[in-house]
Specification:
The structure holds two protein chains of two kinds. By secondary structure, chain A is mostly helical. Chain A is built from nine helices and no strands. Classes of the chains: A mainly alpha, B alpha+beta.
Chain lengths: ~180, ~180
């Protein structure tokens, strides 16, 4: 862990909220991405990110300084998002709106990117979260397992299945013709 | 298009999705800080128990006294700590928990300190000084600090700007006055 970040965490442990604000600033986009991968809704992901930073601060004394802070922070975020998802399901909310499409995207002619986005958006949550952690965060499989509370073998399986589902979608749409997965 | 290209597109698609939503994160730092600042400090049970025990509130003192009384009645008698010797006019007693040195000074010692002791470390310092009947003025020194008002004294005097205690041994107050 960088010394500067360690100092911010130690100051936060001593109740320095400004130091914690700096941590939020550094990790907010990554935490938001974790929450979005599970909740698939911008507003819910925003709420979950905020809640995750609050919970992480309140439980900061439980953080093991020998571990990577990002892994611990993403684990908190994933747990908060999963709880929010369960709550949302219990409340039987109406179907979630799709993640907003960029109207300029098609105008730019990048249909392939739009197709991949759509394929990812349609992935079940159990596959989507590992995909985001792997491809957006670039986490190794072991850390993905820690964040999601899954054995590494399960992470590998889900990533393979996710790729297979995306491949099928892209083949159906004619975006790809011969992809070896 | 091959899979490595798809992987690149996958990364690009996810980045685009997150970046589109990232505008919602403007000011998140302030919102988190504000929410945390408004929350009451949450402490563990152990912390709260320690805090309660360390607080010298009358409530706690009363609770302790009541518990001791109940225990005394439950045992059929009220017990007195064995470290306090039986009262006698020759006994000098000071409750000074945490003190390092306690002494008594008086006219019987030409105002030279005579040490009190607390062998069992319960904070009750005692000394039994055999004195013939008479009137005695004295005070205690607790870690060098003058303590002139002994609760067991019969009188107090104020000399040189300080209190001193007066004790009569032999019960003859009129006859023993000097």
């Amino acid at each position: 862990m960088p010394a500067e970040e360690l100092e911010l965490i130690q100051r936060s442990l001593n109740g320095d909220l400004e130091a914690w604000g700096e941590i939020v600033s550094r990790y907010k986009q990554a935490v938001f991405a974790v929450a979005l991968s599970i909740l698939r809704n911008y507003a819910d992901a925003e709420d979950a990110a905020q809640d995750a930073f609050i919970r992480a601060y309140e439980n900061l004394s439980k953080y093991d300084l020998s571990r990577r802070f990002s892994t611990w922070m993403f684990t908190v975020a994933a747990n908060v998002a999963k709880n929010a998802l369960r709550k949302r399901r219990r409340q039987r909310d109406p179907p979630l709106p799709e993640v907003e499409e960029d109207p300029a995207e098609e105008a730019h002619g990048d249909l392939r990117l739009a197709a991949v986005r759509q394929a990812v958006a349609e992935l079940p949550e159990v596959y989507r979260a590992p995909v985001v952690l792997r491809y957006w965060h670039g986490l190794p499989l072991e850390e993905i397992g820690q964040v999601l509370g899954l054995p590494v073998g399960t992470v590998k399986t889900r990533l393979h299945r996710a790729r297979a589902l995306i491949r099928t979608k892209l083949l159906e749409q004619g975006v790809i013709h011969d992809a070896v997965g | 298009m091959r899979w490595d290209e798809v992987d690149e597109l996958l990364r690009a698609a996810l980045s685009q999705e997150v970046e589109e939503g990232a505008k919602r994160l403007l000011g998140l730092e302030e919102r988190v800080i504000q929410a945390l600042a408004q929350r009451p400090v949450r402490r563990g049970l152990g912390c709260r128990i320690r805090e309660f025990l360390s607080r010298p509130t009358p409530r706690w003192a009363l609770a302790g006294a009541l518990a001791a009384l109940l225990l005394g009645f439950a045992l059929g008698r009220l017990t007195v700590p064995s470290s306090i010797p039986q009262w006698s006019p020759n006994l000098f007693v000071v409750a000074a928990p945490g003190a390092r040195a306690v002494a008594v000074v008086g006219d019987f010692s030409a105002w030279q300190p005579l040490p009190l002791s607390d062998p069992d470390g319960d904070g009750i310092w005692t000394a039994s000084i055999p004195l013939p009947p008479g009137r005695y003025e004295y005070a205690f020194l607790v870690d060098g600090k003058w303590v002139g008002q002994d609760p067991l004294a019969e009188e107090y005097l104020r000399t040189f700007g300080e209190y001193v205690s007066v004790r009569y041994i032999g019960g003859d107050r009129a006859g023993s006055s000097s």
